[in-house]
Amino acid sequence: MEGLRTPEDWGEEYRRNFSAYLSYKDKLRGLLVELLHANGLDFDNVEGRPKTVESLINKIKREPSKYANPLEDISDLVGLRVITYYRETVSRIGGMIEKEFEVNWDKSERKMDILDPDQFGYLSDHYVVKLSESRKSLVEWKDFADLNAEIQVRTVLQHAWASISHKLQYKSEVEVPKDLRRQLNSLSALMEVADSYFSDLRNRTETLIDSYKDGFRTGDLDVELNSNSIELYATSKALHSKWIPIAEKTGFESLEESEQVTRVSMGVLLRILSMIGLEKIEDLDEILRGADSWGEKVLEHVHNISKEEECICYAVLYDIITLFAMYARRTVVDEEIISETKFNAGMLRAIREFDAIT
Hints:
Layout: H1 7-16, H2 18-38, E1 45-50, H3 53-62, H4 70-73, E2 78-84, H5 87-100, E3 101-103, E4 109-110, H6 111-114, E5 125-131, H7 133-136, E6 149-155, H8 156-168, H9 178-217, H10 227-236, H11 239-249, H12 259-275, H13 281-308, H14 317-328, H15 335-340, H16 345-352
Parallel strand pairs: 2-6
Antiparallel strand pairs: 1-2, 3-5, 4-5, 5-6
């Protein structure tokens, strides 16, 4: 009889089928990542794990009368966690889960909705799910049709709170010494406020970006230089399709830019523009309009000097703009500014010899 089986018996059965739970975790994680991308939902990470055999046995031992059949009754044998950046995205991801899975609402909870403002605890939303009927019928999912999984959704800060409070080994307010309770609740409140501020900053950033777009459409370039304005300006002027082919024609090596490369080269550009006294997009626009007459010569010069130094120049848009800005303001470019570019030896020599361009 199942009721007479020991926790160790259930653990052994779980161990025999562990590979199936591991496979389910891997497929669910892949599905969640795919769905998040398809729905345009930004996220930091998607974690997953099957419960360990030891953890299952201990859970049964803690509440032996609660589980007639632990492998059916325990809902988090497979657990996934989606970590995102903003609180509002938590709700949007929850809506996606409701749409794509069969949610067991008796075992699921949105902790944002049920915790009082001063209540101790982390605020992850928990969804106990099974595959939707349409997905169960697919060949690649049929082996997992009857399995539960728990999906947690939380922000990065909620994840940090959960990790730290778990490290402190306080799982409920009653476990916290009274002398520490006030401080711990204050810390929880601070992190919740920080979450709200991050959301507010994102909303204000989006509003600012919209104002830049409106201004660029009407020709208003009286906009401060920052990563958002430069990226939008480069897009509005189609600078990539204009200057990359010219750079490659002069001998620059083609390069498929990654986000990391773009961010680094944009950061260098912003520092250089500040150091040579440029503050507005209209200042940069004036230089790039002038580059229509001399930009190709600058690129040829940089490539030729770099070739002499046995260095390779890569066609990276923001690096090209940096070179143009330094050429246009070469009378104020000193060694401190040159060293800030972190360019290779050939490009550095070429910048020092800009006056040789005729």
